[in-house]
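A quick aside before the break. I want you to see a complete sequence-to-structure record at least once, exactly as it would be stored in a machine-readable document. Don't worry about memorizing anything.
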Amino acid sequence: MTPPLTYAEVGATLTEGHLPSGYAHLDRRVRLGSGHECFERAGAAVLAWGAQRGAGLSVVPGDPVREGADVVLRALWLRIPCRVVRVVRSSGRVGFAYGTLPGHPERGEEAFLVELGEDGSVWFRVRAFSRAGRWFTRVGGPVARAVQVWVTRRYLRAVVRACAVSP
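That is the input. The structure line, written in tokens, reads:
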């Protein structure tokens, strides 16, 4: 039997509206460049777990992102179970969102999106809502938030590197 997600607001990171109340919110983005080639390269990296791997996490299984797939991210001793709840593929947006499963340090959802602006600019965006899901994230609230911001910066840098054109 498949374990249930640990939150109810499935898909909320993919809407442009407000993120659900009762959670900490995160919305960061970085410009990757411009043009369709940059958009395609960044989208391919994101759908191959490039942000997570580039941030130093392992992803098991290592298959490309697939809606409904359960994965476990690992960072040192920490086991981080997630489910891919949505995959987005359109002419202006590519990416996915995953939600937390029992055992995850947080409860909530995180989206990893490559967006193509009307002016041709390409952006990578990480959008999340979360609250403590385990005793150590409740006890270490401000530290847990700082770690989330730090890892998000690593996600952003990883996709910037993945999108860069090799000389």
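Two observations worth writing down. The first helix runs from residue 36 to 47. The chain has a mean pLDDT of 91. We'll return to this after the break.
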